[in-house]
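Whiteboard transcription, Tuesday session. T.W. wrote the structure tokens on the left side:
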């Protein structure tokens, strides 16, 4: 599996940057995880949108969906230029007032995720777990050829991700808060809480992302390393991790 960071800021992007978005590639798949503000401009640096097999949306906050409408327009153009012949599948939970946005004519197809579903997309197995957040959020586990990626989306420390225990090769989770800010914003993790989650899941590596707009983000990794012994990556646009 190859994971590329397309955006790593929480809530809104910094200058020239993007909010949540990640490109997951296997030998057979190119899957977009979340599509926040600025994500598409970074996606083009790695793959064409016509190559995307599926999109997974963790939840309907704007920092995870802001570029989705433009992606669906791109899908329409791909049809017009005969570069895509099947609708782009966009997976998300069925949230009233938002889910219908995922289906755009014949160009994209919104597909509801039930939290207990186990999907199999041409050998890529995907399962889900709801988290504690102020919008309904689904964490996701991707398994392919013996490798495992867990992407949490947004979550507070009371979330139960025990169904994902057992040694992910990479955990992408949020670190919206510094260690001393415990509980400042409900429904988000501090660096130390992110590290505790990595430890609980037995993750071999931790990618911290969804950053705050104050302080030195390098401190998030330093704080996490005090309670997690695995490899820690600090998200950065275009960072690619292969496992
Ligand atoms: Zn967010
Ligand atoms: Zn959120």
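and on the right, the sequence the group agreed on:
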């Amino acid at each position: 599996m190859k994971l590329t960071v397309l955006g790593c800021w929480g809530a809104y992007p910094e200058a020239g940057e993007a909010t949540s978005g990640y490109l997951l590639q296997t030998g057979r798949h190119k899957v977009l995880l979340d599509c926040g503000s600025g994500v598409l401009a970074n996606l083009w640096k790695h793959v064409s949108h016509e190559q995307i097999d599926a999109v997974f949306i963790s939840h309907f906050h704007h920092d995870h969906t802001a570029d989705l409408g433009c992606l669906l327009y791109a899908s329409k153009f791909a049809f017009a230029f005969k570069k895509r012949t099947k609708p782009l599948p966009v997976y998300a939970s069925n949230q009233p007032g938002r889910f219908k946005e995922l289906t755009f004519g014949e160009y994209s197809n919104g597909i509801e995720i039930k939290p207990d579903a186990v999907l199999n997309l041409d050998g890529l197995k995907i399962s889900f777990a709801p988290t504690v957040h102020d919008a309904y959020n689904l964490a996701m586990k991707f398994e392919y050829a013996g490798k495992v990626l867990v992407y949490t989306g947004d979550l507070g420390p009371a979330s139960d991700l025990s169904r994902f225990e057992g040694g992910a090769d990479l955990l992408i989770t949020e670190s919206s808060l510094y260690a001393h800010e415990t509980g400042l914003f409900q429904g988000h993790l501090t660096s130390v809480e992110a590290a505790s989650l990595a430890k609980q899941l037995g993750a071999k590596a931790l990618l911290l992302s969804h950053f705050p707009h104050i302080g030195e983000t390098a401190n998030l990794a330093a704080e996490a390393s005090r309670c997690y012994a695995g490899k820690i990556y600090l998200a950065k646009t275009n960072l690619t991790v292969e496992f």
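Someone added at the bottom: The pocket of zinc ion (ligand 2) is lined by residues 59, 61, 133, 135, 154 (CB under 6 Å).
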